[in-house]
Amino acid sequence: MLDDDHPLLAQHSWHHLDEQALAALAQRLAAWLRADPSRANLRLTLHGELGAGKTTWTRHLLRALGVQGRIQSPTFALVEPYEVTLGATPVTVMHADLYRLSDPREWLDAGLAEPMDAPGLKLIEWPERAGRLLGTVDAALHLQHDDEHHRHLTWHAYTAAGFAALQALQSSR
Ligand SMILES: Nc1ncnc2c1ncn2[C@@H]1O[C@H](COP(=O)(O)OP(=O)(O)OP(=O)(O)O)[C@@H](O)[C@H]1O
Ligand SMILES: [Mg+2]
């Protein structure tokens, strides 16, 4: 629970996903965002231990949103920005990995507060490192190992937007 002002509205888990099944979920989310680019004002956090698949999920989502070329893990840069076009609408996507943030104040010192508050899609690994500075989270995605090649994903929806995305993922199966 990252934001006391936003209680959990709903949660859903998908079990035993191989990477292809995880990619398919990311692709379904991308399709839902494409259908109405205003949906892309969404802040998603990604939780799970090292190697859980947070970056892998994000890469599949970015690819499905039209990002070409190499998708770096933003471990050192903290934030990697992308510009995508959904329909005819340009959307800024920020992929953050805050693992190396040792104190939430570095979030402010690094000048990340303003760009991360701007409209667009935010995908944030290791959000715990920013403490409460992160602001409202629409949904928190928790990835856990089932075994070497399978994960389970739990989607926690905290806002109407995070809930709408979850419903879209559930209903498009
Ligand atoms: N079902 C699966 N879903 C996701 N990744 C999988 C799966 N099976 C195997 N993998 C592999 O597990 C690794 C996940 O690494 P990834 O970098 O995505 O983890 P991460 O959660 O971002 O870790 P970190 O906290 O270090 O950033 C990748 O090498 C990926 O190929
Ligand atoms: Mg990662």
Written description of the protein model:
One of its GO terms (molecular function) is metal ion binding. Belongs to the TsaE family. One of its GO terms (biological process) is tRNA threonylcarbamoyladenosine modification. One of its GO terms (cellular component) is cytoplasm. This protein is an alpha/beta fold and 173 residues long. It has a single domain (10-171), classed as P-loop containing nucleotide triphosphate hydrolases (Rossmann fold). The protein contains five helices and seven strands; from the N terminus they run βαβαββααβββα. The protein has a seven-stranded mixed beta sheet with strand order 1-7-6-2-5-4-3, with helices on one face. Bound molecules: adenosine-5'-triphosphate (ATP) and magnesium ion. Adenosine-5'-triphosphate binds at residues 17-19, 22, 48, 50-56, 97, 125, 149-151.
What's a concise summary of this model?
One of its GO terms (biological process) is tRNA threonylcarbamoyladenosine modification. With 173 residues, the chain is α/β, with parallel strands linked by helices.
